[in-house]
Structure formats: structure tokens, C-alpha cells
Amino acid sequence: MSNGELISKHAGVSESIADGDDGELTELADRVLTTARRLGADSGETAINRSQGFSVNVRMGEVETIEHNRDKSLVVTVYFGHKTGSASTSDFGAAAVEDTVRAACTIARYTASDDCAGLADAEDLATEIRELDLDHPWDITVEQAIDLAGECEGSARGFDARITNSEGAAVSTHRGTEIYANTHGFVGCSSGTRHSISCAVVGGQDNTMQRDYWYSSVRDFKELEPAGSVGEMAARRTIRRLGAHKIKSTQCPVLYEAPVAASLLAHFISAIRGSALYRKATFLLDQLGKPLFAEDISIGEYPHLPKAIGSSNYDGEGVATRTRNIVQAGILDSYVLDSYSARKLGMKTTGDAGGVRNLCIQSGNNDLSAMIRDMDTGLLVTELIGSGVNNVTGDYSRGAVGFWVQNGEIQHSVEEVTVAGNLKDMFRQIVAVGSDVDTRGNIRSGSILLEQITVAGD
Predict the structure, then answer these.
(1) Is 52 within 8 Å of 58 (Cβ atoms)?
(2) Per-10-residue mean pLDDT, the chain, length 458
(3) Burial (0-12, 13-18, 19+ Cβ within 10 Å), 271
């Protein structure tokens, strides 16, 4: 079965089940839902996952670990009216599946009724399936993976005499298949891969040590960065951190390097998620249609990007995903809702059960070097430490590592400082987004420059 293929009789669509393991999972999903009906459930849904892969880790030129994984899971949720029960198992045997469905039904009979509980509305389910090109199995042996990891670490350790130790280099490959089905007649099947090479090393100078890392992660193994390049980048990032020291507390511009800039957008999404909104546990309550960012900032969701980590034709409830604006010209245009939270808020689902998919902030034309020059004087943040973020108040305080910039040039590395503020204010302080977009994760962002926030040091 090709990636993203939909097998459904919903809305008149009917496609044959492919032979092989995917077909077996589809038949299992049908058996789960048939059993739920037989046991009295009014409706139900099931998510079945199976994955396999392996990873190797090489440290100081020696194989440290080889891990194989072969996982599977089945989750069933049933509804007796608006009463809900869920149960799960990793045993796909007939008796275990029967017991799991029966357990979910028993739970449902004893739970309180909730008018917002239930399947996604049938008219919202996906009927159009795009080829997203997510499935690229890597026919690599363990021995070949060990060689790649060794090449990666060797490149890092040989880059500079100040690289004194290593946390290791790793190569991993993973492939998974997911089935989602419900009693509206929807059955969706998708398969996808993810492959990575990573390295972390330690450098020493003047009785001090620093560490840093780098990695490449893609759907298609042919697009991985060369192993030697990953190791060299890990070494470069480590060496540039040597000689770090504190700076005095100040208010100044702060530039978040692209890999850490995504965390700012993650905090934003958490604050406009339906579950936080209906619980009134967010600092962005009642902000729909209001300006949260500068006028030149737009943020959107792009779930159909080929080969992207977050791409999917439907969400965790089978609802069709769509390209959409969340922030347009600085104004909050939409929340992030699944069916339950949408009903709680008297709104429609945005197709985000399971989270947003390929969140992107509109980037500018300047790369990181140009943004450093434009910042002139301030702090470049390359790593964040701790999780001091309050989603209710928006208060933000995180340890940071990076570089002090003066006259548009990096002067020295910085450690043991804290960047602090309120996220609502920080969003309005975003004045530029770089062209150096990090595409390795579900949130895609270039480096983000904030006009001025508090940096606490000495």
C-alpha cells in the first residue's frame, strides 16, 4: 500500500485493501470495531500502530550499543451515547483484542456522560488523499550503520586537538505503519520512515570543558547530511563554545538560532490549543482576531508538504487536514482544535487532533550571519536549558547558552545566563525571522530576532 492511502466507504469512496501486513492491520481494525458494536457500543474508533527499526551508537571508536525495536500497539475508544471508555494492548491475538474491547466497554458504562464526547463529525473526515512521499525504507545493515557512526565520530574527534572526549555518534532507521478507523466507515492507513545521524563531543581548554552536538534527520535516507559533515559540525559547535563566561544583567536584543527558535512557536501553539482554552488555562484566552505579533509576521500550518516530518492527510480522528493561516499579518486567525475541544468552545475542529502539522513562520531574506549584523549588539542564543514557562500567565524564564555580539560580530561565548520575559510581550518583540529555516522537525522556523528582552547574568 502506498503511503497515505485511504481505504474507506465514507462519502462514497471505496478502495481495495492491499495484500500483506497493511491489509492484516486493516482487517484487525474492522474486527475491533465489529466487536465493539457486538458488545453494545453505539460508536467507536481504533488506532493501530506497528513500527520497527534499529539504532547503533559508537563512542571513542568502539561500538557502545546496538538496539533493535519492534513495537506495536492497539488503542480502542468506545462510546455509549456520550459515555466514553478506552483501553489498549500490544497483543494482537484474538483473545487479547476481545478482552481489550470488552474492557473499554466496561469503562464506558461506568463513566459520566459528556455531551462533547464522540467521534469527529462524518462530514469532516478526509476523502481526498495526496501522495506525501513519506515512506523511504533504508536497506542498511547494522555493520554499515556502525561504519557510518564511526565515520561521523571520527570526523568530529579529528577536527581539532581540543576535542578531548565524545558522547558518541549514532545512526538510526525507523519505519512505522498506522491505521486509524472508526464506525463512520473511515479507514486510513499510512506508512512513514525516519532516519538520522547524530554526534555529540566534548572540548577542553584552560581547565574548562564544553559540549555541543549536531544531527541530520529526514524521511528519505538519501537526503541525510554526510556522516563526516555531521561530525564536523558537532565539533565546530563545540569548539566555538570554549572560553564561555557570564555577562552582566541587561536588557538587549536576543537572537534565537533556528533550532531553538522553534521552541517559541511551540509555546505559542500550547497557548492556543483547545484544551487550554476551554479550561481557561492560557495567557492567550479570548485573543481570536486580535494582534499578537507585528504586522509582518504570519504563521501557518502546511500538512501536505512532501517528505516533511509532520505531513498527514488526516488528523488523529480522521478529519481532513488543510493548509491554513493561524496568524495572518500579526493577527490570531485561528485556534488549534480537535473535535472535543471544538465542541466545548462551540466551534469547528481545525483538524488538529494529535497536534499541528508542519507549522511554519514566514521567513525573511537574511541568513543568520546577516541577522547577527543587523542585531548589532545583543545575545545570540544557541541552546536553552530548563523549562521555566507558565502557560497560564505567559511568564518565561529559561537558562541559555550562546554568544555575545557587539558591532555585528560575535565577541565570545556566553554561559550561565537566563533569558526572561512574558511570552505575550515577547511575541510582539519579534522583529525578524531568518531564511535559515530548520526543516528537521514538525515546527519549521528560521532564526528569530527579538527587539529587547531581559538577560540575567552577573
Answers:
(1) no
(2) 37 31 89 98 97 98 97 97 97 97 97 97 95 97 98 98 97 97 96 98 93 98 98 98 93 97 97 98 97 97 98 98 97 98 98 97 95 96 94 96 96 95 97 97 98 94
(3) buried
Residue 22, SS3 per DSSP = helix
Q: DSSP per residue over 336-398, as a string?
A: B--HHHHHHHTS---S-TT--SSEEE---S--HHHHHHHH-SEEEEEEEEEEEE-TTT-EEEE
Residue 58, C-alpha cell as written in the block: 559508537
User: Which set of grid coordinates corresponds to residue 216?
Assistant: 541530520
Residue whose C-alpha is closest to residue 257's, from 452, 455, 451, 448: 448
pLDDT at 441: 96
The string of DSSP letters for 25-76 reads HHHHHHHHHHHHHHTT-SEEEEEEEEEEEEEEEEETTEEEEEEEEEEEEEEE
Measure Cα distances from 365 to 369, 434, 435, 438, 446 in Å. Answer: 11, 6, 5, 15, 10
C-alpha grid cell, residue 1: 500500500
CA 255 from centroid of its chain's CA atoms: 22
Q: How much is the pLDDT for 440?
A: 97
Q: Chain centroid to CA 56: how far?
A: 23
pLDDT at 22: 76
pLDDT of residue 14: 27
Instruction: Fold for 10-239, please state it.
Output: PmbA/TldD fold (3.30.2290)
The answer to whether 56 touches 149, Cβ cutoff 8 Å, is: yes
Look up residue 17 and give its DSSP letter. P
User: Using CA atoms, how far apart are residues 206 and 141, in angstroms rounded to an integer?
Assistant: 42
Which sign, positive or negative, has the C-alpha torsion 197, 370, 428, 363? negative
Vertex 439 angle, CA 438 and 441, to 5°: 100
Check residue 6 and give its pLDDT: 40
The pLDDT score that the predictor gives to residue 18 is 32
User: Hunting for cell 512521499 — which residue is that?
Assistant: 133
User: What contacts 435, CB < 8 A, 6 or more positions away?
Assistant: 363, 364, 365, 366, 367, 446
Model pLDDT, residue 20? 39
- What residues have CB less than 8 Å from 34, skipping those under 6 apart? none
What residues form DSSP beta bridges with 378?
A: 405
In this structure, what C-alpha cell is assigned to residue 36?
465493539
In whole angstroms, what is the distance from residue 50 CA to residue 45 CA?
A: 17
Residue ranges of domains in the chain: 10-239, 244-458
Residue 458 has a pLDDT of 86
User: Of 128, 115, 113, 39, nearest to 76 (Cα)?
Assistant: 39
